[in-house]
Amino acid sequence: MGTVELTKDNFDQVVSENDFILIDFWAAWCGPCRQFAPVFESASERHPDLVFAKVDTEAQTELAAAFEIQSIPTLMIVRDNVAVFAQPGALPEPALEDLIGQARQLDMDEVRKSIEEGKAGA
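== Thioredoxin ==
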């Protein structure tokens, strides 16, 4: 499938229509972003059942601000409209593969339950 370019105009639609999305927040001037790009692209080819998306933080400042992106690249994983992972830094390929495997194994009912319990305790 390759990667999808996310913008403020298509973000909600892409996230609501797909249950597993990896999002790379990046910028053209960012060296680590350019190093991570082929790793991200390669993973998208190995996992055609997942949506791999990119947000250009320079062009999509509103999205970057909405997710409080402080440094790039930042990788975010969204499952069932829940951000289950967000971390800055360019990951090497084995670490990205491991992360995808862990995210696939998440019990989303448990994740939602713990979120609700966290809200109740706040």
